[in-house]
Specification:
18-stranded mixed beta sheet, Diaminopimelate Epimerase, Chain A, domain 1, 2 domains, 6 helices, alpha+beta
């Protein structure tokens, strides 16, 4: 079984967010326990498992599941971008693929220059009270907080980029809040500093899922895009996720959809030992 590791939302190896990609054969999924074991063995923020649908299927080209070492996720941007990159490598050129997932049908298109564009549903963003204990856990009070509906992220908006970069959360306290409030992750965001070439920055914290800080989170931009689009009066934006492996993303708003774009690079290509 071939396994690849791809760094997503970057043009350079060891940047962006790493994801595993496993292309499966046959009409049936392997046992869930096997999928979980592979995800745990790889130990990456996420692994995409995809199996082909029947040729000419009118709904989708692939069935797609996302697993991390602690369980299964309903939506993941960076692993989908990594998968689209692998499919383009395998076919030797650009193309468009549709994926059937737990959160619906999503598409990815790879251009001739290697730019990969994901087509995801926009998340509903509405201002909400700051969760109890969040200011203490983050160490700095946001200007406002927002709910993202079924996405289950909380957006914490700060005045400037330096405030977001300076955050040093109490991860144990943040994990407790996330479990209490059924929060997927805390997304801190702010306008980008002037003359940086991007419109807004973010950082994403998911310690309840064993991921203190995610490197680059495509799915979070299904909410960040609509928020910043409305605030800035724009439908096309550039974003930077300011983690240690930071990554840059393009964001375009199209009605109830968000197009999220970036690049990827394969850093490892190997196989599972026979019998595993």
């Amino acid at each position: 079984m071939r396994v690849r590791i791809v760094d997503a939302f970057t043009r350079q190896p060891f940047g962006g967010n790493p994801a595993g990609v496993v292309l499966l054969e046959g009409p049936e999924w392997p046992p869930d326990a096997w999928l979980a074991d592979v995800a745990k063995e790889l130990g990456l923020p996420m692994t995409a498992f995809a199996r082909p649908r029947a040729q000419g299927d009118p709904e989708a080209d692939w069935d797609l599941r996302w697993l991390h070492p602690r369980g299964e996720e309903r939506m993941c941007g960076h692993a989908t971008l990594a998968l689209a990159h692998v499919l383009a490598e395998d076919r030797g050129g650009p193309g468009r693929d549709r994926f059937a997932t737990l959160s619906g049908i999503h598409a990815a298109e790879v251009a001739a220059d290697g730019t990969i564009t994901l087509d995801f549903p926009a998340a509903r963003v509405s201002e909400a009270p700051c969760p109890e204990g969040l200011v203490a856990a983050l160490g700095a009070a946001p200007e406002a907080t927002f709910s993202t509906g079924p996405l289950r992220d909380v957006l914490a908006v700060y005045a400037d980029e330096s405030a977001v970069r300076a955050l040093d959360p109490d991860m144990a306290a943040l994990a407790e809040i996330a479990r209490r409030d059924d929060m997927r992750q805390l997304v801190a965001t702010a306008p980008a500093a002037a003359a940086t070439g991007v419109d807004f920055v973010s950082r994403c914290f998911a310690p309840a899922d064993g991921l203190p800080e995610d490197h680059v989170t495509g799915s979070a931009h299904t909410a960040l895009g609509p928020y910043w689009g409305e605030r800035l009066g724009r439908t096309t934006l550039r974003a930077l996720q300011a983690s240690a492996r930071e990554g840059e993303l393009g964001v375009e708003l199209r009605g109830d959809r968000v197009l999220i774009s970036g690049h990827a690079v394969t850093v490892l290509d190997g196989t599972l030992a026979p019998g595993h």
